[in-house]
Amino acid sequence: MRINNVVKITSLAAAGLLALTACGATMAGSTTGGTESPSPASSSAAPSSASSSSAAASSSAAEGASTGVYTAAAWALPITDKGDKLGAIKGDSFSVDIYQVATDVASKDSMFVDKETKENLLKKGDPIVYLNYVVTNTSSADIPLSHSLVTPKAKYLDWKYMGGMPSDSSSDGYKKHGLSSSGVKLKEKDPFVLKPGESFNLAENFAYTAGKETGIEATLTPQDAAGDLDHDKKEKAETTVTLK
After folding, report:
1. Which helix (H) or strand (E) covers residue 150, if one does?
2. Residue 91 lies inside a defined structural domain of this protein
3. Which residues pair with 216 in a beta bridge?
4. Which of 35, 47, 50, 218 sits CB 3.0–4.6 Å from 127 for a disulfide?
5. The CATH number of the domain where 199 resides is what?
């Protein structure tokens, strides 16, 4: 798959969480907390700062900065489009703009180790990259969403494990770079209705290798009137981007 070569899939299958336990990898018993995913243990790229802003600017960014390009939903955190735009995902009723925002280093070891080498797949101090996803309702109808929202997930094309890639689950890194892994304001309750033209954003991080081809898949499963996921209307879309 090449950059911006989008594959759309509509599925009637029941939604399920993708197991993070990678094929050929096991959990490290001493690691605590967080939702994490595996990534190449031999990342040699040097981490770099994505921003030279002052401490005051960083504090402002941590709360999010809405832009004229996007209109944030009432329940969504403010939207930022800072960073390098790598590409976009186009679904039937939604789009996802993909931004590479910052690089940093992991604050702790991940939960996953390779079964054969016994090496942790993301060690403390390994370089990581932060991607921010801006999801927009491109249809003419409201889209009621559950807490699962639309959550894009990235995976290197040569990733050899069945599960996703490990991440640094510390919230400090997200705050440092003015990002959020949730996308929703505190105390907001579902359904989160995304009106036509409205957007929300959320971010993820994973082990960083510059120039790496990365597949990104997004799944949208709306909520029905009873508050259940409407799998008959589930959409999937994906694209491939190259990290800077």
Report:
1. strand 143-150
2. yes
3. 154, 239
4. 47
5. 2.60.40.1240
- What distance, in Å, lies between the first and last C-alpha atoms of the chain? 18
58, part of any domain: no
3-7, 161-165, 216-220: segment of lowest average pLDDT: 3-7
Question: What pLDDT digit, counting tens, does each position of 175-229 carry?
Answer: 999 999 999 999 999 999 999 999 999 999 999 999 999 999 999 999 999 999 9
The pTM of the full predicted model, rounded to 2 decimals, is: 0.75
Q: How far apart are CA 179 and CA 117, in angstroms?
A: 34
Cβ–Cβ < 8 Å for 48, 105: no
- Tell me the pLDDT tens digit for each residue of 56-70: 333 333 344 456 799
Assign 3-state DSSP to the chain and report helix, strand, coil percentages, each to 5.
Answer: 5, 35, 55
Domain that holds residue 107: 71-243
Given the structure tokens 């990290």, which residue do they identify?
243
Backbone angles phi, psi at 169, to 5 degrees: -80, -5
Domain-located, residue 19: no
